[in-house]
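Chapter summary example.
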Amino acid sequence: RLKMSEELESSAGSICIECGRRSTQQLYREFSGGIIKLSQCPTCEKVVDKYIEFDAVILLLDVLLLRIQSYRHLIFNYGIQSSMLWKFSIVLVLCDAYTKLRLLKLATTESILLQIHFHSLFLQSILGNVLSEYTNYSLTKL
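The structure predicted for these 142 residues follows.
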């Protein structure tokens, strides 16, 4: 279970996955005998990062369920590389575009028209995500 925690840095500067506040304390403390104690957030008083103890399958399920806590863990506390983050973002946008295409119920089955619709939905998804992130970033700077 704690395989993922071996890859985590137990350093300061992580964020709380529940409230999103930057934490000055470590994610966990290790004691003798392999016992760890997860740190609590001083702001929301919940565990700073519960995914340290979770299996990778549970984390993947939470990512697929679009739980913000799992994304915060991956991006801020897990130390995911920026190249992996870009690949992950592209896969999510592709899945979003495909889902929107399936929900359209188009009357055509021509390959070229479906590709055109898919590409336009892909660009809409990218634009929507970029605008959403810019808005979130702008609001947090106020």
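To summarize the output: The longest helix spans residues 111-141.
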